[in-house]
Design a protein that fits this description.
This protein is mainly α. Helix content is 57%, strand content 0%. It has seven helices and no strands. The protein has helices spanning 24-36, 41-59, 62-95, 112-125, 134-155, 158-178, 184-202. The protein is flat.
Length: 248
Amino acid sequence: MQSNDKPLNGQADTPELPPATEPRFEALREWWNNAWDEGGALHARWEDIRRARHAGWHGMAHWIKAALGLAGICAVIILLDGATDALADRMHRLLTAVPRVQVGADTSTGVSAVVDQPIRSYIAAHSAGLPISASTVYTLWQVTGLFSLIGGFITRSNGIRLTWSCWGFAGIAMVWTTTPDTSRTVATAIAVLAWTIASAFALRGLNLRPRVFSTVHTGAPQITVQPQIHIPAQPDGPAPDSVRQLGR
């Protein structure tokens, strides 16, 4: 049977509602305010950034160093990614240049042709009878110059720098020998100028001044300090009354 009982207050039973919870944005706002208060996480990070300019690399916070290092690595990766195709194409041309280079032909143009064409012609004219082709000799010539330039800039080795100097002098001599008399002086001057500009990188840090090591003698006398204890002599005469003999 259906019950006819009614509540005492005359109202129907209603389900209880869950307690009101704090909205999420209120909690986020409270965390934000606390983080920017003195001693908070964001406030401390901002102070690290503000002091980094005056503290220098050794005094700045470690997390800033890590962020700068990561940004530098990302920049290098981006640059390498953009230069990978160009570098790979250049290396492919260099490695496959031996069977395709035609030494002695007018294959170069522009300012580089003033230096390149006489060198090609000289190698082509003086490579007959060698067990290798003139194209191989020209490729070895290019590789030697590139290796000397990069190696001298990075390692500062005297041997590599000497190789670079001999390579440059030999190239200038080739230009002087092969270029016609009417334009020999100008072509040689351009070759010397180009080699000098490149030497600013290959001979970086080279100093021709002799090192002089001088020793300064002040002539000051050497003083030897020996600590000693001096006991003043006791005056002669009867012992004072304050001194009592032992055994009496």
